[in-house]
Amino acid sequence: MVDMNNFPIQIVTGCDPVISAAIERLQERWRPYSRLSRRHPLARLLGEIIDPALSEYSEKLPRHYRPYILGAGEERGLSKIIKTMTVGADRAQRIRIRQFEKTARDPAFVATLETLVELLWACTRKRVRHVPVRGLNGHRPAYEFCRFCGKPSEFASFAGDSNSLEIYPQSSGDRQITLRLSNTHCHDHRARLPTGEWNPAYKTASLSVAQFDLELDRLTRQSTNYGTPSAKSGDSLIDEYIYRYVHRFGFRPGDEAEMRNHARWIVDAKVSDQKKRILALQQWGLNQSEIAAILEISRQAVSKNLASIPEIFRAISTDVKHHQNLREEFRTKISDIEPRILDWLDDPSVIYIMLNPDGKLWITRRNQPNAEGGTIITTSQAELIIATIAAETQITADDDPLLECELPGLLRFAAGLPPVVAKPTFAIRKMTR
C-alpha cells in the first residue's frame, strides 16, 4: 500500500497558480491529517486551504465552466465532498473532465481539473495505516484493493460499513461463526473458502500475478501519458495496442480500480503479447496473410488467435452500428422519453452524446471539433433515462450516484446524480471497435 503521507500530489503542467500554490501549502501541513482522524480531520484542512482557493479560481472563470469543477458553484465545498464521499470523488471529477473536453478546448482549465483529480485521489486514499474497525478487536492494515483485481479487499469493505451477508456470515443457527476477513483479497479471490478449502480462483490468480502486475503497469503508464504510446513494453506493436485500448476506455491515473479490473480481464482472457501484436496490425488494416508474413507465423495461427479473443479486446473499427444489439423494449422506452437520443445512436457520424447540468443535450460528430447542442430535457426526463439504462445493465441507480457501464453495441455510459452533482448529467460514448 502506498504511504500517502510521503506521496506528493502531482501538479499537472499548466495548472492555475492559485490552485497549485494551495496544494503546495496543503502538503506542508497534511502529514498528521487523515479522513479517519478526529483530532486532525482532513476535511478541516481542505476547508482552510483548498476551498477558498477553489472559490477564488472559479470566480475568474466563465460561468459555463463552473459546473465542470467538483465543489465549485455549489453550496458544499470540496472539503464537505471529501467528508461525505468516502470513495469516487476523483472519478466524479474525471467524468466532468471528459464532458468538458467534448464541448471545448482549454488546456489550462483541463490541467487544473487534472490536478484536482490528483488531489482527490490522494485525499480519498490518505488514512492511517492501522485503523480501528467496528466489531473487531485491535487494529489491522487497511489495504484498499484486492491483490488480484480492482475490488476492495474484504477488510476494506467491512471497514467501509459494507453489510454483505454473503461475505460476512454472522451466525449459523445457534452457533456463532467467527468473522474472518481477508485484508489483502476480495471475496472472490480470498485464499480459503468459508468451508476452509483452498479457493480455486485464488490459486489461478496466484499463478498469473506476475502477468497481472505487468498488464496493470502498462495500462497505468499509458494513462499517465495519454498522447502517445507509452506502455514501455519493449515492443512497438504491443505499445500501439495498449495505447488504443486505453483511449478506447478513456483511462486516466485516477481510474485505478477500473485499470486493475481490466488488467485482470486481460490476463483471464489470455490476451497474450502475440495476440496484442496481431490486433495492432489488424487495426492498421492488414489482412491475415499480411499479418502472418510480418510476424513470421502461419495464416492459420493468426486466424486461430483472432478467433480466441473476446469481442471487448478486438481491433478498433469505427464502422459499427452501435444500436444493433439493443433490445427493442429498451429502445421503445428511450424513444418515449426522448426520441432524438435513438436518432443519434442510429447515426454513424455521432460518436458522443452528453447531458450538461443545465439540461442541454450536446452531440459530437466524427471529424468535427465542435459539439452541437440545443435540445433541452427536464430533470425528470434525465433521471428516467439514467434509471432506464441502469435497469438495462442490471445495476441500481439508487445505490451509487456515479454510474459507469457498457451497453450492447459498444456503447459506454457514465452518469452522475445528486448529491455528487447538482443536477443529473450523463454521457453516452460510442466506443470504437
CA radius of gyration is: 23 Å
H/I helix tally: 16
**What percentage of amino acids are in beta strands?**
5-15%
Tertiary shape: globular
The largest sheet, given as strand count, sense and whether it forms a barrel, is: 6 strands, antiparallel
Mean pLDDT: 78
Catalogue the unreliable spans: 1-6, 317-324
Order of helices and strands: HHHHHEEHEEHHHHHHHHHEEEHEEE
The strand count comes to 10
Share of helical residues: 40-55%
Give the N-to-C terminal Cα separation: 35 Å
Task: Tell me the strand order in the biggest sheet.
Answer: 7-6-5-10-9-8
What structural category characterises the helix and strand content?
alpha+beta
Offer a quick outline of the entry.
The chain is an alpha+beta fold and 433 residues long. The protein is built from 16 helices and 10 strands.
What does this structure look like?
By secondary structure, this protein is an alpha+beta fold. Helix content is 43%, strand content 10%. The chain is built from 16 helices and ten strands. The strands form three sheets. It has a six-stranded antiparallel β-sheet with strand order 7-6-5-10-9-8, sandwiched between helices. A two-stranded antiparallel ribbon has the order 1-2. A hairpin with a 4-residue loop joins strand 5 and strand 6 (360-365). Helix 1 (17-29) packs antiparallel against helix 2 and helix 2 runs antiparallel to helix 3 (78-84). Mean pLDDT is 78; it is low at 1-6 and 317-324.
